[in-house]
Amino acid sequence: MNCNEKEGLLIGYLADTLERKERDRLEAHLSSCYRCQNRLTELKRVRNLLRQWKTVSPPPKLKSKVMDNLRVLTRIEQKTNKELKDISMDDVVEWLRKRVTSEQIRIYNVLTDFLGREKGEEVFDYYLEEQLKEQMSAPPREFKVISDALNLEVEVERQKGGIVKEIIYNCPYVSISHELKMKVSPCEAICLKMAKLREKFHPVKVELLKRLPNEEGLCIFLTTPIEPKPV
Amino acid sequence: MNTCSDEQLMSSLIKEGNLKAFEELITRYEQSLFNYIYRYTGDFHTAEDLFQETFYLIFKNRGSFNADLRFSTWAYRIATNVCIDELRKKTRELELSLEESKLTHESSLKFRDRRVNTNSIDSSLEERLIKKDVEEKIKDLVKFLPEKLRAVFILSEYHELPCREIASILEIPLGTVKSRLHNSFKQLVDLIKKKGLINELQ
């Protein structure tokens, strides 16, 4: 047997991918060849080294993150099933999925925490519905959202006389803190929507204020960068 | 519920919409799937996102779960696909950002060279290896394996799955699994030997 040709077989032996026959032949060879024995020992050392890559602990709360995501997603699935039968559910869900942000999950959680599951989900459904409608009807959606957000910013800036650090919506049931970047993010679109939603749900708001610990309740905070944006 | 098989839990999720069953499945596979994804991508935060993505897809595609298949096989398959998608996306983004950025012609050439010239990959890998602890070094070595070999190697070496199971997960013939496993060992051994890393690693 030629030892130089055994390298491949030794690796196969190590990886345990050899056929029984090959394996038997190699073992027979190994019993009499010190050189190959040494080479196998070296290969085993390599393998033991590679096995030192230990298992890590997953980040905390990973499971609850998955479940939070899922609750939002099941609402979306139900919604699209019920309300938008003529549109391919997969398309819609796929579209929305890409946009399920941590802010949305937070909205869902805050809504259900403060309003109770039933009422909270009702409001959340409304929010989803609006989002779906917008997606279905307006292709230049991004543009519209951006211009809305900028208009709003400019308006508030004007009212406050220049540099604005915070825009506060007196929204009784949602708390979002978000730094406005130069470009408009999905979170800002959500904030705008929540502001509209507040108006529509005015009766709910009154009812709710009684249940909240103080009249201030919760607010949406949009924090702008300190430097004013060019108008 | 603890005594149910994975497949019974899946069936409970599919037929009764039992989210508790789904939660139990996450608990059972949190450790193994997270580690698989982490080893595949080599990045902890990416692994966190992709783990969530994997379970989202498991949930979304629950209707197409084939009861003849073991749940673990199916879950590993989905996780693998999620990882592959992510790595491709990353590569595309990198290419795009390089095209768009104001990199000089020279440095972009350098980048291209790196991608095709193994010697230069080796030397930069070597440089990085010297500075890191053992596990980081192993991570870099495994990352160096081509995607196809990497999945097989991780599943076999770190998850101790038999070749037959790996073949089923990756939907490739048994012979292909064996040859990939063989090649991955060969590449790693070559690399470690070539660079004299065996002592470095100890």
Can you describe what's shown?
The complex is a heterodimer of chains A (231) and B (202). Chain A has helices at 7-15, 20-32, 34-50, 62-83, 89-98, 102-137, 141-160, 186-200, 202-211; strands spanning 166-169, 176-179, 220-223. The relative contact order of chain A is 0.09. Chain A has two domains: 3-50, no CATH class; 62-223, no CATH class. Chain A has a three-stranded mixed beta sheet. With 231 residues, chain A is mainly alpha-helical. Chain A contains nine helices and three strands, in the order H-H-H-H-H-H-H-E-E-H-H-E. The longest helix of chain A is centred in the middle third of the chain and has 36 residues, at 102-137. Chain B is an all-alpha fold and 202 residues long. Chain B folds into two domains: 1-82, RNA polymerase sigma factor, region 2, helix turn helix motif (Rna Polymerase Sigma Factor, Chain: A, Orthogonal Bundle), CATH 1.10.1740; 118-197, Winged helix-like DNA-binding domain superfamily/Winged helix DNA-binding domain (Arc Repressor Mutant, subunit A, Orthogonal Bundle), CATH 1.10.10.10. Chain B has helices at 6-16, 19-41, 44-60, 71-100, 105-116, 118-131, 134-144, 147-157, 163-170, 174-194, 197-200. The chains are: A mainly alpha (231), B mainly alpha (202). The A-B interface holds A 8, 11-12, 14-15, 17, 42-43, 45-47, 49-59, 62-63, 65-67, 69-70, 73, 93, 97 and B 19, 22-23, 26-27, 30-31, 34-35, 38-39, 44, 48, 51-52, 55-56, 59-60, 134-135, 138-139, 141-142, 156-158, 163, 178-179, 181-182, 184-186, 188-189, 192, 198, 201-202.
